[in-house]
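pipeline/complex-builder :: batch 7 item 3
reading input block
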Amino acid sequence: MSTPFEQIAGLDRLVHEPTRLAILTALSACERADFLFLQRITGLTKGNLSSHLSKLEAAGLVEIEKRFVDKKTQTLARLTGLGKEATEGYWKEMEALRKSASGWLPGNAHPVPSG
Amino acid sequence: MSPQDLDRIRFITRHFHSLKGLETTVPLGVAGLIVGVRFFFPDDSLFSLVLDAACLLVCFLLWRRAPSYYRKILGEVEQPPKASFPKNWSVYFLVLLILALVFVQGGWRNALARAVLACFSAIFLCRWLWRDHRLSQVHWLALGILLLGALPLVSWMSKERRMELVALLYGTALILGGLLDHRFLVREMGQIAAHPATEESR
């Protein structure tokens, strides 16, 4: 049985990062959202949001779509099937981590083999 | 970013459409209020007609302009069908109220006034439950209880004025609820913007 520390180390870093987690949380609560909404709800600057969305898109968690509305480009983001699985899996892992951490005692720790 | 922030993000995204108070709720409330005032204080003077026309214009402008206002300042969210609170209920009951005001007379009218007020109250309570019965949305519970509490008041009114009073109460409650929703949405999204998610780790 792994310790809570090992479980933390095993978390998906792409999802665990707070900014990306905020983006994924917003997208998991809707069908799709536009760039401005994601910017407002996360409080990020355009550049930062764009950078995080690109990373999520490259990992296949988010799908980006561009369309024209009133002669302006509108960027929409939606969670892919993989993204939904990753977000749900992350919360399951967190719940498991919470349970194991609540019953964990320092005496239970065993040294991690080096190398 | 705390778990509370994530919870707030999830809630606002999920209920984004129904929280846009100026889009449907306030115009419906203004319409209800105009109907109520028109029938409660019958006045054929030019001033009264101009005032009614001005209120209807405000109602129309809000209904037309609010969607683009929200789109420009807060962005857009698309929800899967049936995910948002069915706004149409309020519209159906407003139409029913106006029809009852115009056509229904006698004892039926009084019974209908009480039934319609109880339905409005139920809608408000359902809206609070729909929004995960949160403390921040308690204004819908309060408005629903206030409308329920007004049922005896409707009975005490003279028979001719009962439906008009219902329209007045309904309109006022919707305007209040809509404005509070709007305030909540703008304030919460502003708070998140003031304390953004950490940006150092990329």
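note: The longest helix of chain B spans residues 162-194.
queue -> next item
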